[in-house]
Amino acid sequence: MVPVTALGIVLAAGAGRRFGGPKALARDAGGVPWVHLACRTLHDGGCAEVVVVLGADADLARALVPEGARPVVAADWASGVAASLRTGLTAAAETRADVAVVTLVDLPGLRADAVRRVLAAAPDARTARGVLARAAYDGAPGHPVLLGRAHWAAVARSVAGDTGAGPYLRAHDAAVIDCTDVGGGRDVDEARTAT
Predict the structure, then answer these.
(1) Alpha-helix residue ranges (DSSP H) falling in 5-102
(2) Least buried of 47, 125, 154, 185, by fewest C-beta within 10 Å?
(3) Which residues form the MobA-like NTP transferase domain (predicted)?
(4) What's the confidence (pLDDT) of residue 121?
(5) Measured between alpha carbons, how far is 97 from 112 in angstroms, rounded to an integer?
């Protein structure tokens, strides 16, 4: 078996209007930046590298990106999550990664166990580039999402506005990996639910 090289992508570009500000600047109750939590979770889950896609208040957010993660800026971030995903996949294409593991910055409860479980859908680099998988929690689709390299260009072409990879994943019968027991799939849209 040939080991899979995984790259993590944290989508953190949005303005967070319902939240009251960019979620890339948010911190947990202990003061740890969410962007740091997301990077650590991806790394601990098996991603050799992590790219963080920034947009709103990118200069402030860049200071919160942990050492070892690579910040990139989605110039058209205000047009929606699709711009962030395209930017992340473009950055991924500059690497030798076989797969990309995509998550959102507003999932501070996401655990490395979920990342490992989704990554297990691509056990061998010889076949990993064609893999598509996503986590599910109580039957609802969630993150992380696993995109084999062979799908990156098509996913980037398929997304628009605030619609991410979901339609592409459904159209291509992506594997659904139950992660209910490891939790952490709930996104935080309002500041009062952030702790």
Answers:
(1) 34-45, 58-62, 81-93
(2) 154
(3) 8-173
(4) 94
(5) 19
Angle at 67 between CA 69 and CA 12, to 5 degrees: 45
Which H, E and C letters describe 74-92, residue by residue?
Answer: CCCHHHCHHHHHHHHHHHH
Predicted local distance difference test score (pLDDT) of residue 126? 85
Encoded amino acid at 59, one letter: D
Sign, CA torsion 34/167/123/149:
negative
Q: Which residue has the tokens 């969630």?
A: 142
Number of domains in the chain: 1
Residue 20 or 69, more confident? 69
Show the tokens assigned to 73.
Answer: 């800026």
Measure the CA–CA gap between 168 and 132, rounded to whole angstroms. Answer: 10
Q: In the numeric block, which tokens belong to residue 52?
A: 């963080």
Q: What is the pTM of this model?
A: 0.93
In a domain, 126, yes or no: yes
Asked if the structure places residue 55 within a domain, the reply is: yes
Please report which confidence band the pLDDT of residue 68 belongs to, taking 50, 70 and 90 as the band edges. Answer: very high
For 178, the token pair is: 């139950």
Strands (E) in the chain, as ranges, are: 6-12, 49-54, 70-73, 99-104, 132-137, 140-148, 175-178
- Whether 16 shows a pLDDT value over 80: the answer reads no
